[in-house]
Amino acid sequence: MTLGKASPTNKTPGDSSTGQTSVSPVPPSYEEATAGAPKMEAGTSESRNNDGEIVTQFTWDDQNIRRVFIRKVYTILFIQLLVTFSIVSLFTFCDPMKYYIQTNPGWYWASYAVFFVTYLTLSCCTALRRQFPWNLILLAIFTLSLSYMTGMLSSFYNTKSVIMCLGITTAVCLLVTILSFQTKIDVTAYRGMLLLFCMVLFISGLVLAVVLPFQYVPWLDTIYAVLGAILFTMFLAFNTQLVMGSRQYTISPEEYIFAILSIYLDIIYIFSFFLQIVGTRQDELL
User: Fold this and answer.
1) Which segments within the chain are labelled E, that is strand?
2) Are 54 and 68 in contact (CB under 8 A)?
3) Exposed, middle or buried, 85 (CB in 10 Å: 0-12/13-18/19+)?
């Protein structure tokens, strides 16, 4: 008599002589099987390659999170710039306001103190920077204080010079932003070059602080302003690509306040340096 093969689902190896059947164990549920597995971040998936190694892949959800992050950053940044340039226009075109802020420098130093405190708080306190709504409140105070400082600086220059510098700054920032999004060059990989450039600008500032009061080299402040404009234009491209993602270094979507802070400061510094380069002070017209 021919015997068929025993199925492993209804017999055990020890049952061949007795012919008794055995019940197979109940398979574990999905929750039990995945209870000890590490949790993955939202927007990522894991797969195994030919060598059995786990490879993490970014899915569409991660790209969607990055797009929402970019939209949030540039929406708030647009509101900041709108407030800043509105204050600059008010201090430039309104003669009574211009006279008041120029004859009351105490408000400038008060705004500088507020700017310095809020900047350190937002830069150093990570928990507070991520806590809503305190992060937006501090960012609003920071924006108003720096806007006042920028407006007071602009009030000492000719109106046509201020308008021209606003136009140049807008064109440069738009061009750098578009190129940073489109280019394949990874600016974030050149952090060492930016650090070296910062050291050069810092040393030049120290030399300028000593030499300029004695007017040994009248055009030294122009050279300093040109170096500053170039440096912060590079920083604008660097911070823009940090926000974009998909580069060697990126910024977390949770750090949208820090991203806004960095790009906003870059734009304000670019405007200030262009004002120093091509602007004409009112006392030079007398």
Assistant:
1) 44-48, 54-58
2) no
3) buried
